[in-house]
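for ur thesis appendix - DNA polymerase beta. copy paste whatever u need, i formatted it the way the template wanted (i think)
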Amino acid sequence: MDKNQVANLLEEIAVLLTLKDGSSVFEIRAYENAARALGSLEGDIGKLVQEGKLKGTPGLGPTIIKRIEEAVQTEHIAFYDELVANTPQIKLDMRRIPGVGPKRINMIYQQLNVTTLAELEQACKDDRVAHLPGFGKKTQDKILQGLSFLSQHADRYLYDVAEVEAERIREALASQPGVVRLQVAGSLRRRRETVKDIDMVLSVDDQASSDVRRAIMDFFTSQPSVKAITGKGETKSSVVLNSGIAMDLRLVGDSQFPYTLHHFTGSREHHIPLRRRALSMNMTINDYGLFKVENGKETLIPCQNETDIYHALQMDYVEPELREDMGEIEAAARHALPKLVQESDLRGVLHAHSTWSDGQNSIRDMAEACIARGYSYLGMSDHSRAAAYAGGLSPDDLKRQGEEIDKLNEEYAGRFHILKGSECDILRDGSLDFPDEVLASLDFVVASIHSNFNLSQEEQTQRMLRAIANPYVDIIGHATGRILLGRPGYPLDLDQVIDAAAQHGTCIEINAHPSRLDLDWRYVRKARDKGIKIPVDPDAHALAGIDDMRYGIGIARKGWLRTEDVLNTLDFEALRAFFHVRRSKK
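the 3d part is after this line
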């Protein structure tokens, strides 16, 4: 387990203790504090445990250190497993409803005696939830909306959760005798923001014996993370992992590998027009091969990899992220696909938080973490005063923070640069939380909505348009406010928003946090085509959050972004000039 996973487990323990009758508030807070403390530590958690360096860390007592060591060494915490086992399933299920916290879960459970989400839904329809102390009709309606949202997104998992599970299995399989090639496929390979299951394709020598194939399948189905086996054979085995994600492993001879990988990477929407193209050229394509059809006879066209498949169809190679039937087949046939941005193209980090607001680390620590990752600048954007729940800064706080940044920049003497910024709240009427003279004193401003999500689409859109028109708003942060698998975004006419951003030269970020990935990739290309610069921002609240940039790059690639489309591929001088020029024009 990595540090984030262990910290998440500690947070989960705190929540489960809250759901448990008779839990000590001090014990709950201890686990909450420990999760925060662990998230702020720099370095590999395995190494820290091995070297005994957790002892003495503020917020980590002896019992919790033992739990952390257990998680690192065994990939689980027995105390967490015990809490899950002893928590009524309906309480666990209610946790998935957007906006329903532990206190309300306990109230519903104690007062209504519901045992399933279906019973809770009926209780809402019978108007019984509205009459609970502290609830009311609005809360009841929100619960009904949340239940509908859950139904729409049932059995889906965040990209980062599925990726960790897949990589654990992939690493284990890669070490097995007889494995020639091994690749994750499916929606995970296409970098979809959520996935339903995991597909993996493995090849062995064409002449490999049944014993080799069976040994690989035995090894796969006996992995520690496998909870249940739902199918097992020499060419395909299916399991359910402890996380609940279903996973298929397909085993083929190496000569078949490119075709099978391509087929199971998908998407179905990509394959349908691709097959039509193949048929127009007297070919057929499936998971067994690409075949030339002459006089009713099929002849295999040998392909060493997926590039050969596309070339045989007189197309450029289509990157997995683009395989969604969004014009990529026509572009590949015209040799007009873009060269997609890569993580290595990024030069710096924008939209990050420190202990000045709700971040877990100091500005210096965040800067040093960026330097360690090869970045040359960091744009600090702590919350503004309206975000009091997140320790939002007053104008005086912002000025004092700027003085700290000046001192750090003097110390770095040009080898690294910190930009003064703010994640400034967009208020209900579309005005900004700081006056223009304060915003003008900053190097850049990220403007975001954090409140009043329930406005009508017209009101919410006008609110956003007014913010975009502000001359000191450089970047719109997490444009729709969605939390993947948690809550839908607020109602917004994104076409109007994109048009306005293009008109005013305002950037719209891809918020790289795996729970957001907002702007949605389906709109990213629209923004690109309007000439909007799109930064990939981690919205980092801790050192580890900086690494979320990689998830944002996945969405950038799905949105057809090239290096020149992404704002923070600019070097520091070019970035500073960009902000200066766009503000000067206004």
